[in-house]
Structures are given as C-alpha cells and as structure tokens.
Amino acid sequence: MTSHTVPPVPPVPRRGRPLHTVQVLGGGSACTGAHVRSLTAGLVARGVRVTVCAPAGAELAYGFSRVGAGFAPVSARTEPETLASLRAVCAGADLVHAHGLRAGLMAALALGGRRDTTPLVVTWHNRTLSQGFRARLTRLLERRVVRAARVVLGASSDLVERARRRGARDARLAPVAVPSAGRPRSFAGDYAGRDKVRAELGALGRPLVFTMGRLEPQQGHDVLLTAARAWRRLDPTPLVLVAGEGSRRAALQERIDAEELPVRLIGCVTRAVEAVRMLAAADVAVLPSRWTARSPFAQEALHAGVPLVATAVGGVPELVGDAAVLVPYGDADALAAAVGGLLADPARRAGLAARGRAQAATWPSEDGTVTHVLGVYDELAAATGEPLSEPVRV
C-alpha cells in the first residue's frame, strides 16, 4: 500500500454546491487522529469542504489546515460553552461525522433537533474497557450515541455487532487504513541496514522481539513480562524492546529489574518512521493486548514482513487471517511458546513474513477508505423525507 496524491474529482453535489462536512474529534488515540487527518485530506482532494472540530493540540499534531480543511478548536467536554461553539460550526454543515464515543455524544448534543436535516455519522474506532458503574455508564452513552446517529461505522466486526446491540438503526463495517506516508521499506535482503538498526538498539548477535503501545493495563504488558521469564533460558537470550509510555511504566520497570528480565522500556518514539524502522529490524513482533480493533501495530508488522504473535481478541483475527500466530489473551505460557517457537524456526518466520505481506495487500488503502466513507456521505446527502435521528437526552 503506497501513499499518493488523490487527483481532484468533481465535488459531491448538495443543493448545487459542494458538500460541507464537519469532522468532530474528541481527543482519542493517535490512530484516530491520523485517520481523521487522512480522511480529511482525501475528502478535500475530492472537492468536499471540510471543517475539523477538535482540541487545539490536534491541529498541532496532525495539521488539518495544511491539507485544506478549516479548523475550529473545541474542548473534549460537553459543557455548555463547548457545545455552543460546536453548534455554531455545525450550523452550516450538510453532514457531521464524529469519531469516537465522546465525540459522538458532543456532536449529537450540539446538533439537537437539527439531526433530522443534518445527518450524523459516528465511527467507532475503539471500545471502552471498564467495570462496574463506569461500564453501566458507558453502555448508556453508547445507546444514546448510536440511536442519534444515522449511520454507525465500526472499525471491526465486533464493534459493528456492539453498535447493533445498543440499538443502532444502521451499523456497517468500515475498516480504517493505517496512513502509509513516510513508511520505510522493509529490510528484506538489506542485511547491512537491518544490522545498523539492531546495533543502535543493542541487539546485535541476539534475537530482537519488539512491541509498541501505551503502557496501560489493557495492553497486556504484564503478560509479556511473565512470558519473558521463559525467554531467559534461550541461547542467545532475546532482547525484548517495548516502545511507549503510560501509567504502568514504573511498575513494569520494577518487575524488569526485580526479575532480571531481558526487557527494555524505550519510551515514546516520537517519529513514526523511526518506530517502523525498529519494527522492521525485529525477528518477531508481539501484540499482547486485551482488546483492539484494527491494531496499527499489527498492520505495520505485516506490511514490514515481520512475523507477528498476537492475542486473538477484537478485530485481530479478521485483520491478520492466517498470517500471524494467535494466542489467548492472558496466557503467558502460550505467548512464550509461540515466540520461542518462531525464534527457533527461521523457515517458519520466513513463511509468516511472506503471508503477512500478502495479507496486508488485501487491506483497503487510504484511497479506498476515503471512497467508502464518501459513498456513505453521498447516500445520506441524497436522502430526503425521513427522520435521520432520534432524540438524545442526558
């Protein structure tokens, strides 16, 4: 999948003028922000007028205005001032597209009774993993948001099914492509380049296992550390690199030191291209998460031809097919055995690498993702004479 400029095409008609969409981003993950930026660029290139409403920091991080969109800073809260600002921006929109549960609630409240003439589309990129009261509150908010939306788009099949259970009138699968701009080529056949990166990481002469993600409980790093105990017995002992920051860093480092694990926490990698270079130099990539939809890390691993061991959760099985080794979430023994088996079998790693690249070639491109979303917009823009939403009350 390569990045290229989308040639301009005739604008989508809406009462004799270009379609005006408002994209609402309530914070969310880096993956969600990158998707909104990619989607915005593709829509603008196709003649659609786009205004992005998001926290001010999102403009600094993703540069929506640099791809031709308008930008209106709003906070990620549902306080009256924020809703008034969002309502003013949406007043001239033909369609509002919110990304995530919080953004969906903000957009639904801001539109109010105008949702019967200004359709709301909500994309679910992730799900909230909570318990007790927070889980009950999340279910309530999910019901309110999906019933306010004319269409709910889910990044994975389980998110689509979840939206349907919450009462969505129209829920569809809409896989999100990982933006490919700046993606380096893999090191297939470039042993000098690969060894240079591995030397920088301190992994010359030993296997390299790599993972990347926020250091939060749902990412499964405790399970990874437990599995790493078994890898101490391998000769040579692999080096496990964990890229990312989060609330669990101190606790994870304490375990690494106390148990003398062959694991290094390297913090955030600020440039995406550097993270992918590290990934491409690895022998095995590991995704130990409790849940994920279309993991960007898993996608990058298969694009780079790096054998992947991942938990069989969320959208991972449908994403990777037979091009990765899947293990149950929380099973450290299964994770240790899967990684150890791959490290001991170069031929099997080569086979997985080839299957990974083939699987990645089947995923929708950024252009395909934009085209799919624009088809939904066109469909809703042409619809008349029917209610487009249900009331939202909080």
Supply database-style keywords.
15 strands; 15 helices; alpha/beta; seven-stranded parallel β-sheet; Rossmann fold; six-stranded parallel β-sheet; single chain; 43% helix
Number of helices: 15
Strand order of the largest sheet: 5-4-3-6-7-8-9
Beta-strand fraction estimate: 15-25%
Number of domains: 2
What's the SSE blueprint?
Layout: E1 13-14, E2 17-18, E3 20-25, H1 30-45, E4 49-54, H2 56-62, E5 70-73, H3 80-90, E6 95-99, H4 101-111, E7 120-124, H5 132-148, E8 151-154, H6 157-165, E9 171-173, H7 191-201, E10 208-212, H8 221-231, E11 239-243, H9 249-259, E12 263-267, H10 272-280, E13 284-287, H11 296-304, E14 308-311, H12 316-320, E15 325-327, H13 332-343, H14 346-360, H15 366-382
Parallel strand pairs: 3-4, 3-6, 4-5, 6-7, 7-8, 8-9, 10-11, 10-13, 11-12, 13-14, 14-15
Antiparallel strand pairs: 1-2
Helix pairs in contact: 1-15, 3-4, 4-5, 8-9, 8-13, 11-14
Short description:
This protein is of the alpha/beta class and 394 residues long. Helix content is 43%, strand content 16%.
Walk me through this protein's architecture:
The protein is α/β, with parallel strands linked by helices. The protein has 2 domains: 13-177 and 365-382, 3-Layer(aba) Sandwich (Rossmann fold); 191-360, Rossmann fold (3-Layer(aba) Sandwich). Helices cover 43% and strands 16% of the residues. It contains 15 helices and 15 strands. It has helices spanning 30-45, 56-62, 80-90, 101-111, 132-148, 157-165, 191-201, 221-231, 249-259, 272-280, 296-304, 316-320, 332-343, 346-360, 366-382, and strands at residues 13-14, 17-18, 20-25, 49-54, 70-73, 95-99, 120-124, 151-154, 171-173, 208-212, 239-243, 263-267, 284-287, 308-311, 325-327. The strands form 3 sheets. The chain has a 7-stranded parallel beta sheet with strand order 5-4-3-6-7-8-9, with helices on both faces. A 6-stranded parallel beta sheet has the order 12-11-10-13-14-15, with helices on both faces. The chain has a two-stranded antiparallel sheet with strand order 1-2. The protein is elongated and about 65 Å long. The protein starts with 12 loop residues before the first strand and ends in a 12-residue tail after the last helix. Residues 1-15 and 384-394 have low confidence and may be disordered.
